[in-house]
User: Fold this.
Amino acid sequence: MNTTIKAIALVAVIAMVAVAFSGDGSDGVGEQFTDGGLVYEVAGTSSVTVIGWEGASSEVVIPAEVEYNGRTLEVTRIGEEAFMGSSVTSVDFTQAANLTQIQTRAFYGLDIAEVVLPDSLTTLGADAFSCNDAVQSVEIPSRVTSYSHSFSRCSSLTEITVDSGNRNYSSDAGVLLNHDKDTIVQYPAGKTGTYSIPADVNTIGSYAFSGSQITRMEITSSVSTIGAGAFSYCDSLTQFTVSRDNRSFTANNGVLLNANSTQLVAYPAGKAGTEYSIPNRVTTISGSAFAGSSLQTVTFPTSVDEIGDHAFADSAITTLTLNSGLNDIGVGAFSGCVSLAEATIPSSVTSMSESSFEGCTSLKSVIWTATGSVSIGISAFEGCTALSTFEIPDRATTINDRAFYGCTSLSAVSIPDSVNTVGDQAFAASGLTQVTMPGCRTMGDGVFESCRSLGSVTIADDVSAIPEGTFSGCTSLDAITFGEDPSLRTIEASAFAGTAFTGFSIPEGVTTVDATAFSGCSQLQTVVIPSTLRDMGERPFQGCDSLTSFTVSGDSTVYASVDGVLYSKDLRTLVRYPSAASSSEFSVPEGTVTISAGAFESADSLTTVEMPASVTTIGSEAFQGCSGLRSVAIASQELTVGDGAFDLSAGGDPVNVEIFTDAPEFPQSAFGEGTTVSYDEYKNYGLPDSDEIMGDALIWIVAAIVLGVIFLAVHIVVKRN
Assistant:
């Protein structure tokens, strides 16, 4: 019995091990694919998320299932911002029987006239359908348990109803409330006429009235809580009034404040006048309090220490002088203020929050007198195209992702030594003309990507790596200075792609140059390889069509150059032939085994190439774009040829090439469109093949035998005489 149990257990263990090793256990999670124009991402063993739209149609049908790699996967989610920015005007959910979530801003800003949500839906994310100017009515299905201002600022929306089976939400006169009807969740922004807050309501949810057409709002005695941005972008709202019996809020000249006037809750965006002085007792400005207002000038008392998220977003403010004592500026606090020209920030502010001034296209000057350690948040000044004056505080430590992205007027900036972190694309697409790279410990990808006016760069000694895409697309960059004792060890993928260098000396100490590091450097003529370089990724000089020579340090143990051609040290691998070399003929040295991928790329002066019998591998796209090549002689009879190896046509022009070889014909994938190939047998074009060698040897052996016989016969005859 015990033996049987042990046997069964052993079988079970073997089965589990077999299952464990039958795949990587990931079930493809994270993989992306496209089907019917919809872009999907595998979310689990049996489900996918729609993450984008690549179709040409403006009409979309969300299916229940989709096939991928032999599996049927359920479509369960519409991902964040999946359709935002597309031209979609119609979405059909009738087949989406497995859809449970529509996530944040999935359909934001799209004018979809009819929205019929599927019964399976449980979650509507923040702003999922917000800023839709076409939809007029919508019903919330019975299973929805989570709704977050999903239809905010929909200017034509007049009615929100709720399925009678829903236990979380209800509707009253077209207004969305929670099930107990004590919270206003969403007021339809297109609803006209007067609205009286029901007597039982104690909470007005975040963005509940955002973008609505109400002209006057009375806060009744029962209301004790008002969420962020509840009355933002109400362009027709001229004043707030508050019931005398309300113990939580008060109104001051039509402006809504908390009961003790320490928090400014909301400013009516339609209120007449362009100037406003915040009351002296106010310490906090609530999120979105002034969002969308027509105010041009706001005076801040010294009492204010916190400005909430999006507090002044999209307002008409023109100048900004923030008060001393201010500590916190919320996310997007002044984003989209397109009329704002100047901003003065006090030293008390130690952190510039995410998107603080994003999209302030008229902002020219920012003065920040910070004296302590400070950080600049993600996208803090992104898209500030007029910004020309900004001095990063001396003790700044962090410049986050995209902080100055697209600041096209920002020509000069000094990055202090105190900065130890610069995030992804922090200065990308800006107007910088020269840069001294800080000696920071952490630097993201593409920090200066597409700075098309950038002409010179100084790399500090402390910089150990130039990350991926750091100077990619800097089309004017033609000068670089390294320190006397550089710590630079790695040049990552596309770090200098598309730059204007005519010559580049990789400094001693660099050990790694990643793939495509110098790709697209069309003016690059000479490259110097240091003795320290150990590893070079695939095709680091792809698209460098002006290359004339490589020079390798004599102390290198990994690489060598012969007549300007780059090889491995043992000459067994031809790494790169300089595309602009003037010679029309080239003979690969005897002993070379591998022709690397892209090795002869765009060497259009070459007409004839000869390869010895030692060559056994020709990498992918090895001769791509060699439009002048007409003859290739290959001595080897056993050869592996990569895809596109002889894709010779440049721009679709027809190219005929004759290949002399005794090896089997190459696969069709080796040739690109426009390349016509013909084969001929190998006939010793300067390089004898094995059959010829054996034939010659046999002739000489036979001749020697015949001569030997004749000599022996003569010797015998002479001896007898």
